[in-house]
Design a protein that fits this description.
This protein is α+β, with helices and mostly antiparallel strands and 156 residues long. It is 24% helix and 47% strand. It is built from four helices and eight strands, in the order βαβββαββααββ. A six-stranded antiparallel β-barrel has the order 2-3-4-7-6-5, surrounded by four helices. It starts with a strand and ends with a strand.
């Protein structure tokens, strides 16, 4: 198997064509990771969720990590890692344009609301939960891509 480091532009293109990843955050030295649904645009990841542990932890520590992968076979996969900062997009006049942008980008994807809705149902909410729109400002991005080569693993 051959493993190649991806160029920054390749990582951005990969994010633009994917919509599900894993978000890691930490509080008081304890890591926490959950699946998220996102849309990538211009070095920002936009997302939607409902209040819960993930939001509480990101508010307490806005430094986060997102990992997105695609696995075709054991020796053919791609993985991109984003280090960034959580920024909530509140429902205020000041942020209305950014909130509308986030919602319009997410609406282009069929199931953008499902993970947030499923989480609120699992938490036992009978009424519609308060929506939380957010963005992750990308600070660093890196990726690896493997391909079969018929030889032991080599990293380039």
């Amino acid at each position: 198997m051959l493993i190649n480091k991806m160029k920054t532009e390749e990582c951005r293109d990969f994010l633009a064509h994917h919509e599900i990843g894993r978000l890691a955050t930490a509080r008081d030295g304890q890591p926490y990771i959950v699946p998220i649904y996102f849309v990538y645009e211009s070095d920002l990841l936009y997302g939607f969720t409902t209040p819960g542990q993930k939001v509480e932890w990101m508010r307490a520590n806005p430094l986060i990590c997102v990992q997105v992968d695609e696995i075709a076979t054991l020796d053919s996969w791609t993985s991109v890692v984003v280090l960034g900062r959580y920024e909530e997009i509140p429902e205020t006049r000041e942020y209305s344009a950014e909130r509308n942008k986030a919602q319009s980008l997410l609406l282009k994807r069929a199931s953008w609301w499902m993970t947030a809705y499923a989480a609120s149902v699992a938490r036992g909410h009978d009424e519609a939960p308060l929506p939380v729109f957010y963005r992750i400002r990308i600070g660093e991005i890196s990726g690896l891509r493997s391909s079969p080569e018929g030889a032991p693993v080599r990293v380039r």
